[in-house]
Amino acid sequence: MNKIIYLLLFILINSSLMAEDGKKVFETYCWGCHHQTAVAFGPPFEEIAAKRNVEEIRAMITSPQEVSKILGYARNAMPAFQLSDENLTAITTYITSYKPVKVEENKTIIQNPYPNIAKIEEKK
Ligand code: HEC
Fold first, then answer.
1. Sign of CA dihedral 46, 50, 56, 60
2. Mutate to test the pocket of ligand 1, among 30, 53, 78 (most ligand atoms within 8 A of CB)
3. pLDDT for position 35
4. Which residues of 94-119 are buried (b: 16+ CB within 10 A; e: fewer)?
5. 35: which residues sit within 8 A by CB, 6+ positions away?
6. With bands split at pLDDT 50, 70 and 90, how would you rate the model's confidence at 119?
7. Cα of 38 to ligand 1 centre, how many Å?
C-alpha cells in the first residue's frame, strides 16, 4: 500500500517538475519570440497547441528550416534549437498544455495561465 502512495507521489511531483522545466525552457529559449497566449514575432503557444501535434512541435524546434515549409510557412524565421531530450519533452508538454478545451461550437475554455480560473472566450 505504501509503495503505491510513494509511486503516486513520485508521479505527481515529477509531472509538476516537468511543467516547471517546460516553463524554464520557454523563458530561456522561446520567450523572445513566442508568448503563451498573445501573438509575438512567432505564433502564441495557444494557437500552436490548437493545431499541431507533439511530433510536429518537436520537429519544428529541432529543424525549423525544413519543417516550417511543411507547416505552411513560405519563409523560415525561427532558429533551430539543440535541446536535450528532457528539455524537448518538457517544452512540448508546456506548449500542449495551452490547448484550448472546446465547450460549445463557437466557444473555448482557456485554462492557462491560471488553471483554476478558466475563462470562456467567444471565437470570431
Ligand atoms: C528568433 C525568434 C524565435 C525564437 C527564439 C523561437 N521561435 Fe518558434 N517561431 C518563430 C517564428 C517567426 C515562427 C513562424 C514560422 C517561421 O517563420 O519559421 C515560429 C514557429 C514556431 C512553431 C510552429 C508554429 C506553427 O505554425 O505551428 C513552433 C512549434 C515553435 N515556433 C516553437 C518554438 C519553441 C519551442 C521555441 C523555444 C525553444 C521557439 N519557437 C523559439 C520565431 C522564433
1. negative
2. 78
3. 95
4. bbbbbbbeeeeeeebebbbeeeeeee
5. 44, 45
6. low
7. 13
CB-ligand 1 contact for 113 (6 Å cutoff)? no
Rounded distance from Cα 2 to ligand 1 centre (Å): 44
Query: Is 12 in contact with 20 (CB distance < 8 Å)?
Result: no
Distance CA 96, CA 57 (A): 9
- Mean pLDDT over 73-99 rounds to 94
pLDDT at 57: 97
Q: Whose CA is nearest to atom 13 of ligand 1?
A: 42
Non-local CB neighbours of 91 within 8 Å, separated by 6+ positions = 22, 25, 26, 29, 30, 61, 83
Please state whether the peptide bond connecting residue 115 to the residue before it is cis, i.e. omega within 30 degrees of 0: no
Residue nearest to atom 37 of ligand 1 (CA): 30
